[in-house]
# Entry
Amino acid sequence: YVDPIVKDGKKIAQMQKTEIEKLTNVWLASIVIYVVGDAPTIASVKRFIVATWSNVGTPNLFLHDEGYFLVQFDSIADRDLILSGGPYTFFSKPVIVKPWATNFNFYEKVLRVIPLWVKLPYLPLNGWSSQYLSRIGSLLGVPICADDCTTRQQRISFARLLVEMDVADTLPDHVWIEDTNGREFKQPVLYDWKPAYCQKCKMPGHNCDVVLNRKSVTQKKDAMVKKIWVPKRQQ
# Structure
């Protein structure tokens, strides 16, 4: 039995920093994955991990009742290797992949703030440093990393960044950059995947208004179909 503390007449169970930090370290090498528009079984996700993430050790997999999976890797390095890959799909359905955090909230962190791969075509090659790319990514959201081809400059057509973005907002198709001479230029932004976001049910991957409109059109077409009575022929 542990005595609670009392504040403003309320009994409160107070967390201890050392205890929380110990368990936080257990889960730091984890990611959260969510398949948009599908509810896969844990067995099917295990097969997906074996086939897609064979470059890391076999992780532990947990299914939450809210529909997302927690993948626990052996190390932070394995976790980061998976995060820097992608984008991933599960039977053609987009897979949201996010690092686990202590303040994780499924509806706020997964269904709204999503890591998206963005391309920056025509970006001058002398502006491909990590600091410069981070400044550009920060105009869009929270930059996570650049892909390997960008970091090594093995592909010069475009730089590619992974950025956490709020998909409830309009995703910009350009940002403004100022060079060292004070000249401003418009930098196009392209997306590997640009998810729809439903403001009604707060879910990515679809739009309730579009679904309702389709149903309405179908119902109108059905209503326009007239049934004509034809007398049965006598044998």
The first strand starts at residue 5 and ends at 7. Residues 61 and 153 are 35 Å apart (CA to CA). The helical segments are 17-27, 42-52, 76-83, 106-110, 130-138, 148-151, 208-224. The mean pLDDT is 84.
